[in-house]
Amino acid sequence: MSTTPSVLECPFAKGEAPKTPATIEATGKATLEQLPDKGQLRVDLAEEGSTPEEAWQKFQDKAQKLVAAVGTAGTTGTIQPSQTSKMVSATLRGEREVFVVSASVNVYFVIEQFGSVIAALAESHFAYSHILFTYTDKLEVTPELLEQASKNARLTAEAIARGAGKTIGRLVSIHIGQAERRTSRDNDTLFNLSNSILAMRSTTSHLKLDPSLFDVNMESLQTHNVVAHVTARFEIVE
User: Fold this and answer.
1) Taking the model in full, what pTM does it have?
2) Helix/strand/coil (H, E, C) string of 164-214?
3) CA nearest to 151, candidates 8, 39, 27, 47
4) Alpha-carbon gap, residue 68 to 62, rounded angstroms
5) Are 106 and 41 in contact (CB under 8 A)?
6) For domain 20-36+138-185+222-238, is the CATH number 3.30.110.170?
7) CA pseudo-torsion sign 108, 109, 115, 117
8) If we measure between CA atoms, which residue out of 226, 131, 117 comes closest to residue 180?
9) Cα(98)–Cα(48) distance, integer angstroms
10) I need a labelling partner for 156 at 20 to 30 A (CA). Which of 20, 80, 102, 116 fits?
C-alpha cells in the first residue's frame, strides 16, 4: 500500500482569483389585520326649567329614559350633569331666567350590538355623535407572521431568478426589518342614515326599527395593520 501523502492544491497558489458566487436579494412582507371589536358614541342631554328643581327633575327623567333605551345592547357611562342658567325673552314681561341641566353621556357597545344601540336611540328620539370604534389588543409581530414574510421573500427571489433563467441556492443571509404599523380605510361617512331616521321618528312615534338597518359594514371600517418585513439573500445557481 502506497504511503505517499495526498496533496491538496490551492487554486490561489496558481494565481486563480477566488470566485464570488452571484447572489440575489429580495424582501418579503406579511400583514396582520385587526378589525375593531368595540365602540362608543356620545349622547348630549339637556333639559330646561323655570326653577332649578324643575330642570333637574326633567333631566333625571331623560337620563333614566336613555339608560332604559340602551338596555342590554350597550352600557352607559357615568352621567355627570351640570347646571347653568340663561336669560330668555318673555312676552310682555321682558326677560326671564331659565335653568338648564346638561351632560354628555358616553354609550359603550361591542361591535355586534352597534345596530341594536343605534335603533334603540332612534326609537327613543336620542341624537348621537362622535362614533368611535376601538381595538382591544395591540397587534404584535408573531413568529407566524415572520414565517410568512420569509416565505414571500423566497418566492420573490425565485421569481426574479427564474425570469433570468437561473435558480436560487442556499440562503446567504437574512434580516428582519422594522415592523410597520398603519391604519387603513375610513368610517367618517358610514352612519348618515340615522339622521333621516330620527327626523322620521319625530312624526311617526310608534315606528319600530330593524337593528339590521344599522349593522356595521366591516369592510368599510378602519383597520389596524402590522406589517413584517424580512430581507433574504440567496446564492444564484448557474
Assistant:
1) 0.66
2) CCCEEEEEEEEEECCCEEEEECCCCCCCCHHHHHHHHHCCCCCCCCCHHHH
3) 27
4) 10
5) yes
6) yes
7) negative
8) 226
9) 7
10) 20
Residues 6+ apart with CB under 8 A from 29: 149, 152, 227, 228, 229, 230
CATH number of 37-134+187-207: 3.30.70
CB under 8 A, 24+ apart: contacts of 60-67: 63/103, 63/105, 65/124, 66/105, 66/124, 66/126
Confidence label for 189 from pLDDT (cuts 50, 70 and 90) = very low
Single-letter code of the amino acid located at 134: T
Which contacts qualify for 202-206: CB closer than 8 Å, 24 or more apart? 202/125
Residue bearing cell 324643575: 54
Domain with CATH 3.30.70 in the chain: 37-134+187-207
Give dist(CA 49, CA 86) in Å, integer. 11
Tens of pLDDT, residue by residue over 20-47, are: 789 999 999 999 988 889 999 999 999 9
> How far apart, in Å, are the Cα atoms of 110 and each of 11, 63, 88, 225?
72, 22, 42, 20
What is the 3 state secondary structure string of 86-98? EEEEECCCEEEEE
End-to-end CA distance of the chain: 41
Q: Which three cell numbers stand for residue 193?
A: 342614515
Domain with CATH 3.30.110.170 in the chain: 20-36+138-185+222-238
What residues form DSSP beta bridges with 183?
Answer: 224
Residue-wise pLDDT tens digits, 145-175: 999 999 999 999 999 999 999 999 999 999 9
DSSP state of 118: H
